[in-house]
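Note to self: the last two entries modelled the partners one at a time, which told us nothing about the interface. This time every component goes in together.
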Amino acid sequence: MIIGIIDYGASNLFSLKAAFERIGGSVKMVESNIPYELDLLVMPGVGSFGQAASSIEHIRESVIDFINNGGTFVGICLGLHLMFESSEEGPGRGLGLLAGQVKRIRSGKVPHMGWSETRLIENSDLWDGLKNVEYFYYAHSYFPEYFGDGIKALVDYGEKMPAMVQKGNLIGVQFHPEKSGIPGQLLLRNIINTVKK
Amino acid sequence: MLAKRIIPCLDIDGGKVVKGRMFNDLIVAGDPLELAMNYRDQGADELVLLDISATVQGRKTMVELVKRIAGVLDIPFTVGGGVRNLDDARAVLWNGADKVSVNTAAVKNPEMITSLAEVYGAQSVVVSIDARKVKNENYEVYIEGGHKATGLDVIEWAIRATELGAGEILLTSIDMDGTEEGYDIALTSKVSKSLAVPVIASGGGGSPDHIYRVLTEGLADAALAASIFHFNKYSIGKVKEYLKERGVPIRI
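The predicted structure of the combined assembly is written out below.
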């Protein structure tokens, strides 16, 4: 299993790389070209929307080609936000893979930081071995206001926000599986398994 | 439902975990990597590593240590102490920390908070505030390991820090630090009520009940503790059970 992690220069890809390696993945950092042998492409979740959007502009087309050719794409936290068109957090355009606006969290303390109960609302192979309600780790101030197809799990933080989206070969999670202990590891393993199928 | 976090803290001097009392009198409490793995397995919600070493040599070992610990953690990891500038912050964030905590440097150069938040996002920026009680129920900000008074009011500084981009405040009571007599509840609730970002309470945690009180009356979003975990007085699991039985939202 070869996993590409898009490196847009905003630190801490270390944890994500370590998490995939712990479950037997071989990780390649993707800066400019997307290697053809990739099984899975991951957009990690650190930094701010504006900065990340401008840093990925040069590989935007190749990412979209990868997806159009059937490659599995995973967006984590900010990586999920980048799957949408735009964000209140900053200028620039996302990948536009999903239709919707990324908005600032309107309730509770912001950032939404810590372990929140995450509820499965529609069956998914990515949730195999997990309980219907699991704690995952979140650290974000914005969320996609998305009510379209593929919402598999929700998190309630004063209002309900999408926690996991799975639509065809697109996967997006608002939480950080690489920071979510054993359930997180299970979810990453399930992601790898769906690619193998 | 968002759970309240229990956060063990490792104070590091020259590569070893140490623990002081009221910011002085250090005693050695063990090997950082071993303790980190132990706390991870006990169900810690996050780990904080603070470099309190005074020497240049000590600081160099720190980055190596961050990397080693990050390699074994699958929970969030915050690193602080001696982060003087953007390069120091970058060094810890690029070696596996999820959040960087700034204290003295943020007071001396508040724009640093904004620069960090712009690059790494507010969720990666923790401003650590060491508070000492002064007259009329007010608290003053101290820097340089609690040794230097700044004349700044804790509430005012905390609000300013969040306006500048801090995503979280790590609030330590110097008066209670290491006493194991309980957190400063009045301080913590006052700060928490004034802010729109999460507050981690620190200083004085000596029993599950202290942690219970600071998470409820004290309105803290997370409780940080060191001595009670290092010396195996209580396991993290025991503390979490205690809290859960009393209705605190806790991840077990």
